[in-house]
Amino acid sequence: MTSSTVPSPAETGPSFREAFTPKLVTVLREGYGLANLRADAMAGLTVAIVALPLSMAIAIASGATPAQGLYTAIFGGFLVSALGGSRFQIGGPAGAFIVLVAATVQAHGMDGLILATMLSGLMLAAIGFLQLGTYIKFIPYPVTVGFTAGIAVIIFASQIKELLGLSLSAPEPGPLLEKLPALWSDLPTADPATMLLAGATILVILGLKRWKPNWPGMLIAVAGTALVTTFFDLPVATIASKFGGVPSSIPLPSLPEIDAAKIQAVLPNAVAFALLGSIESLLSAVVADGMTGRRHRSNCELVAQGAANIVSGLFSGICVTGTIARTATNVRAGAHGPLSGMMHALFLLGFVLLAAQLAGYIPLASLAGVLALVAWNMVEKHAFANLIRASRGDAAVLLATFLLTIFRDLTEAIIVGFALGSVLFIHRMSKTTAIETDRPFVAEDAADDAEGGRHPYEEERENDPDIVIYRISGVFFFGAAASIGSVLDRIADTYRALVIDFSAVPFLDSTAANTIEVLAHKAERKGVAVYLTGTTEESRHDLVAQGLQPPLVRYEANIGAAVRDARASRRMP
């Protein structure tokens, strides 16, 4: 009697509709009351207080205006929460994008940046709808640690001028090896007032984090330095002196100049934005899951990130992604669901409409101090040290990604790091695949044993010279095919039957199947019968697809059955 089982949802995966249902809909279906609204409002206000100075600082460091940073947080942040697959994700401009955005502005101008941002949004949405979000998570851990640390170094280096108040004799170079000598040569122009404000910002944030962790350290530090600058009329650069302040209105949606040549020019930047944005946003969602025990919907999240980037570009914003620090702040502040992220965007909108003029008093030195701390916090120092000590392979992947990020290009760093990590994994996996050989005993009663004639109490019995058994264990794939194939290739003419057991092989690929096929043809020419035992339905399908079917090979349930059949064939005239 046979029975069939119905696959569970966990086995078949969620339906298309379930996979792309925003978490906002899920939360509202569960029931949403006044207490939940109050919790989300408080969490949204807390995150907005953190995001206000950070959004402007990141935009300025990226070569954009502080207003563009706020527009990004408002429009992008609202859509990430409204449409996303995470309950707690907070979207906005991120420090990880500073390097890429600044390079794009320098190469293609602001119109090029906005076009690249919108194109990356289309790519993110396509990645999500094609349900490729799961594969983004396959980026090796040393790669993420390495490029994050590399970005942190570049961010800090980009803020040295503002931290010290340097008056450069020439435009600041972009590459680090050119930037540092140029900054060093202009070091005598450092301004004491600027250095004092930057240092005070850092000390206030660190002090409040230690003694008053619930207080909004960034906002207090930035507001305090703005008051000191205004009261003492300090001769330092401010948002108003450099950018003319922050407009107290929202721009109308508009498209940048679009033509085929421009799209082709910014396409590599858009691909880099999409790649980094998908990694950063899903990593942030995973962090939120770890803090709350919830599970996000990867592909739904990527679609939301895509929509957020398209709309951000329409309103002159820059790249949007999930932000780990603000998302973690949202969780710690007691958020219940996505409405907290939407309210964070509305609070920022209220600031722009009602109090944007106050932002003009903020000294750039204090925002540079904020970014210096952001850069320091981006470096996963404990993880970096552990990976260096873990193994030579992990250290090589980490350092290659880290150094390429600093001295070459972020996209190149991720690709090379991923390739090195993949090769390292293949090498390690190939070592787990093993093969052992055996021969059944001559005694006829030994063939009754399920293992093909092995008897634990009669080791002195003579082995059967006509039959050889190979047992493969571990994943049989292209990384191990060469070593396994070299063992299997030693077929002596004296053997009349070759048994290859796959019962300990959970998976094999086409390269492994091809290795067996070549061996089977060689055995056929020598008159050796080949038996394949212990194959799963999936592995047998792959083997048959490669041409391994009777009469070239014979399939048996186990080694014992193969040995019995081989002996029976030997006795036939």
UniProtKB/TrEMBL annotation:
Compartments, as annotated in UniProt: Membrane
Gene Ontology biological process terms, A to Z: transmembrane transport
InterPro entries documented for this protein: SLC26A/SulP_dom, SLC26A/SulP_fam, STAS_dom, STAS_dom_sf
All copies of domain STAS, residue ranges: 457-566
A GO term from the CC aspect: membrane
Transmembrane segments: 41-61, 67-83, 113-132, 139-160, 193-211, 218-240, 270-290, 302-325, 345-376, 397-426, 468-488
Family matches, as PROSITE patterns: STAS
Pfam families recorded: STAS, Sulfate_transp
Signal sequence segment: none
UniProt superkingdom: Bacteria
Membrane disposition: Multi-pass membrane protein
Major localization class: membrane
Entry keywords, A to Z: Membrane, Transmembrane, Transmembrane helix
Name used for this protein in its record: SulP family inorganic anion transporter
Organism: Nisaea acidiphila
Taxonomic classification: Bacteria, Pseudomonadati, Pseudomonadota, Alphaproteobacteria, Rhodospirillales
